[in-house]
Amino acid sequence: MLNCYLKGQQEHERPEFIPYAHLRIRTKQKVTVEVLDHLEHLALVDFRDSEGVERLQKAIQFADQLHEVNTDGVEPMDSVLEDRCLYLREDDVTEGNCTEELLKNAREKVEEYFVAPPGNIPLPKLEERETFLKGS
Amino acid sequence: QRCLSLIKSTKFLNAYITVAEETALKQAEESEKRYKRGQPLGVLDGIPIAVKDNFNTAGIETTCASNMLKGYISPYNATVVQKLLDQGAVLLGKTNLDEFAMGSGSTDGVFGPVRNPWSYSRQYKEKSVPKSHSEDKDSNWVITGGSSGGSAAAVSSFTCFAALGSDTGGSTRNPAAHCGVVGLKPTYGLISRHGLIPLVNSMDVPGILTRCVDDAAVVLGSLAGHDPKDSTTIQDNFKPFELSDLTDVSKLSIGIPKEYHAPGLSSEILALWSKAADLFKNAGAKVIEVSLPHTRYSIVCYHVLCTAEVASNMARFDGLEYGHRSDMNKSTESMYAATRREGFNDVVRGRILSGNYFLLKQNYENYFIKAQKVRRLIANDFVKVFGSGVDILLTPTTLSDAIPYMEFIKEDNRTRSAQDDILTQAANMAGLPAINVPTALSERGLPVGLQFIGRSFQEKQLLTVAKWFEKQVKFPMIQLDEHNGNLKQISKP
Predict the structure, then answer these.
(1) Angle between the B213-223 and B459-473 helix axes, to the nearest 10 degrees?
(2) pLDDT at A18 over 50
(3) What's B475's DSSP letter?
(4) CA-to-CA distance for B312 and B356, rounded, in angstroms?
(5) pLDDT tens digits, one per residue of A26-82
(6) Weakest mean pLDDT among A58-67, A78-87, B205-214, B220-229
(7) Signal sequence span per UniProt (chain B) (predicted)?
(8) How does DSSP assign A49-112, residue by residue?
C-alpha cells in the first residue's frame, strides 16, 4: 500500500532537532505517471510542462513537514465556528426569476438552456491527449 | 471627481482593473443632492471607495485578474458591496490583485503587477542608491505585497478613502504593511462572504484597508453583522461602535509571541518590534513573552488546506454558465479541460493539482486530515495564550519592507507565499481578528507595519489599542511628487 511505504520512509529520515524546517529539502520518491494522469483527469487541468510536475513535487515535499507534528488524540478541525449552531432560514423562496440576467453571461445557449457538447464521451487516454505527460 | 482624475494620473501604478467612471459620477451627484437636503444615507455617504476585483459587483466586470472571468459582468452585488452602496458610498472601481487572490505580491494577475506608490515617493527616492545610468530609471519600483495590492495602492495613493480587500492568509495585512495603510482582518464570521469569490471557505474574510484606524472602525461598523445569505456569519447582534481615546494602558496585557521571530525577519523590523513593546511597557501596560509553539507549521498546514479547498472551489469554472469558454467541442470533458487550461495561469493550475493530490483517497488521511488536526493545535495555542490573561498580541506583519519587483520575481509564487505569509497566516487559521498599523519608515524609505492580533469578536478592543498605538507612532504621510496632481487638496480626513 502506498501509504505504509511512504510512512516507512519518513520515520527513517527524521532527525532529532530540525532548525528552519520549512527550508529543508527532503528526498522523496517521485510521483508516478499514473498518479499524475489520474490527477489531470480529476482536475481537468493539465500540467503543461515539466515545471508543473516539479511544482507538484515541491508542494508534496513541503507538505511532508506536517508529519513532524504529533497529533495523537487530536480531532480534525473543520471550521473555527464549530462551537456555534449553523444558521438555517425558513425554506421560503425570497428571490429569483433572474433567468435573463444569468443567461447573459453564458456564451452558448439555446432558449433557456446552457449548451454543452456531448457528455458521454470520455476524455481521451493519455496517449491521445495533447499533454506533456505523453513524453514522460 | 478629483479622485477620478487622480486615478488617471496614477495609472502607471496599475492599481485599478476597472474604473466605473459614469456610475461613480452619478453616485457622487446623488450623494451631493442628499447632503444638500440634509439627508445622507449613512456615515459613508459620498465617500469614494474601491473594491477588490474578486467581489461581485452588479453591472461591473468582475475578473479576479484571470482570463477565466474576463468579460464576466456579475448579475448581483456582493453583500458587503451592497451594504456600502446602501450607505451612499461612491464605488470608484475594481482594483487589481493576484490571480484569484493567490499570491503575496500582486504580481501574478493577467492585468500585470501593481506598483507600490511608495516607489515614487520622495522618501524612497531619496534613500535609494542611484544605479548606473544605462539602467531604466523605472525599474527599481517595489511591489505592493499581496494579494490585495491594488486596494492598498489605491488607498495609499489617495485615489480613494477606503478599499475592500480579502484576507485568506494575510492578503489584506501584507499589502497594508508594504503600502503604509491600515489593514484590518475581522474575525471569521463577522462580515458576510456572500459575493466574495471564494478561495478557502474556512479562512476567507473580506478585509478593510483605510488610512487610519478610525476609518477602519467606521467601515467595519457598516459591514459587520449577520447575513442570511451567508450561513457562516454569526447570529449575534453587532452594534457599530465609535472608538474612544485610550488614556489608560496599564490594564492591558500585551503578549509578544517569541516564535514570530521567524527566520528571515529583518533586523530593522526586529528593532521596531522591540521599540513598540517598550512603548507599551513605558506607558504602563504589562508586556509578557508568550509562546505559540505550532506557529511554524501554520504555513504548511495552510498550504495543504488551501490547495485542497482551491481544488474544490475552482471546479465551478467550466466555461458553461459564465466566463471564458474554449472552442473545443468534441465532448463535455474535453471542453472543460481546454477551457480551464486556457483560463487559469500556472499558479492556479498548480494549486488545483496539488489540492487534488492531497485529496486522493490514498493521501486524504495523511495530508488533509493531518492538516486539520494541526489547525486545531494552532487554534488551541491561541486559546491558551488568550486564556492566560493576555489581551492583545503584538507581532511584526512582514519579514522585511517591500522588495523590488525584479528581485521578487526571481522566486516562484509558492515559495514567495510561503515566506511572506508566515507571520500573518496563523490568525486566519484560528479565525482571529488582526490589524496592521503602519509604524515607521525603513532605512530605504519604505513603510513597515506591526500587527496586533485580538480575541475572537473583540474588534472594539483591538481597534482601540491600535488607535492608541497609531497616535503614539505618528506615521509620516507619503510625499508623492508634484506631477501626481492635486495631492495636497485631498489630505487625510
Answers:
(1) 160
(2) no
(3) P
(4) 8
(5) 445 567 888 888 888 888 877 777 777 888 888 888 888 888 888 888 888 888 888
(6) A78-87
(7) none
(8) SHHHHHHHHHHHHHHGGGGGS--TTPPP---TTTTSPPP---S---S---HHHHHTT-SSEETT
Say which residues have a Cβ less than 8 Å from residue A27's Cβ, sequence separation at least 6: A13
Q: What is the DSSP letter of B300?
A: H
Distance CA A132, CA A114 (A): 31
pLDDT of residue B145: 80
Residue B171 annotated as catalytic: yes
The residue whose grid cell reads 507612532 is B473
Q: Check: CATH 3.40.50.1980 for B1-298+370-473?
A: no
Is B374 close to A69, i.e. CB distance below 8 A? Answer: yes
DSSP states of B304-369 as a string?
HHHHHHHHHHGGG--SSSSS---S--S-HHHHHHHHHHHHS-HHHHHHHHHHHHHHSHHHIIIIII
| Contact: B72, A105; criterion CB under 8 Å | yes
- Can the peptide bond before residue B147 be classed as cis, meaning omega within 30 degrees of 0? yes
B393: exposed, middle or buried (Cβ count in 10 Å: 0-12, 13-18, 19+): buried
Average pLDDT over residues B363-386: 87
Q: Which of B119, B171, B354, B442 is catalytic?
A: B171
Nearest to B369 among A23, A40, A76 (CB): A76
Q: Do A59 and B354 touch (CB under 8 A)?
A: yes
- Let me know: does A43 contact B311? Beta carbons within 8 Å: yes
Gap between the Cα atoms of B116 and B488, Å rounded? 19
Probe site for chain A from B76, B261, B299, B320 (most A CB atoms < 10 A): B320
Decide if B388 is catalytic.
no
Q: Are A132 and A47 in contact (CB under 8 A)?
A: yes
Please tell me what DSSP assigns to residue B144: -
Q: Which residues sit opposite B49 in a β-bridge?
A: B91, B162
All cell numbers assigned to B263: 527566520
Active site residue B52: yes
pLDDT of residue B453: 92
Please name the amino acid found at residue B295. Answer: T
Indicate the length of chain A as a whole number: 136
Nearest to B57 by CA among B90, B14, B8, B30: B90
CB hemisphere CA count around B413 (13 angstroms) = 26
N- to C-terminal Cα separation, chain A: 24
The rounded distance, in Å, linking the Cα atoms of B178 and B402 is: 5
Integer Cα distance of B284 and B278 in angstroms: 10
User: Rounded to two decimals, what is the model's pTM?
Assistant: 0.82
Classify each residue of B140-160 as buried b or exposed e, where b means 16 or more C-beta atoms within 10 Å of its C-beta. bbbbbbbbbbbbbbbbbbbbb
How crowded is residue B118: how many other Cβ atoms within 10 Å of its Cβ? 29
- Short-list B340, B299, B322, B424, CA closest to B73: B322
Helix (H, G, I), strand (E, B) or coil at B253: strand
Q: B357 vs A52: CB contact, 8 Å cut-off?
A: no
Catalytic pick among B52, B83, B460, B467 = B52
